[in-house]
Amino acid sequence: MSIYIEKNRKTKQLIQSTFLGILQKKAFEAITIGDIAKAAQINRGTFYLHYIDKFDLLEQMEQQLFTELGMHVDELQSLYLSTRTYEEEQEQLAHALFSFIETQAPTLKIFLSDHGRAGFHIRFKDAFSSKVSENLQQYESFHVQLNVPLEYFISFITSAFLGLIEQWIQNELDKTPQEMKALYMDIIAFIQKR
What we know:
The chain is built from nine helices and no strands. The chain has helices at about 5-25, 35-40, 45-50, 55-80, 85-110, 120-135, 140-145, 150-170, 175-194. It is elongated. It starts with a helix and ends with a helix.
């Protein structure tokens, strides 16, 4: 890796971490490029070398989060698709996703807070729904057994999963990813029994 590429990566990391620190204390709408540059001890020109404005900064950070989440789902799916049942895969997927969320909790807590940009919850749900939909396309037997329109099913599943994530983050990660997976599977089992 060239020195220039590494320096750019470190500068972007500095800007992003500084931005998150400010976002913990100040609403997104009130943050200025000057606030970010001053706190990061860089000049405004350096900021503009990497981002168009604060909206671009936030959008890139969100997209990075969504991309990593999607890659995590894809990687897990490829590992278990051929050897496990749909139910077993869901259990593994839930555990992997809760583990990923645990590593991203500080950022998610800020993005989901009142200080975050309006609509993050919707953008997160849309990205997650898109990935779930894409992966469910691989299960022909699932589609045959499904008695409701797919978009309603995906909306229900993703809303329920994201609700658990939000509650877990609000509870300061009071459970391990393994415990969250068990809780998720218990809720799904309870709904199925009813």
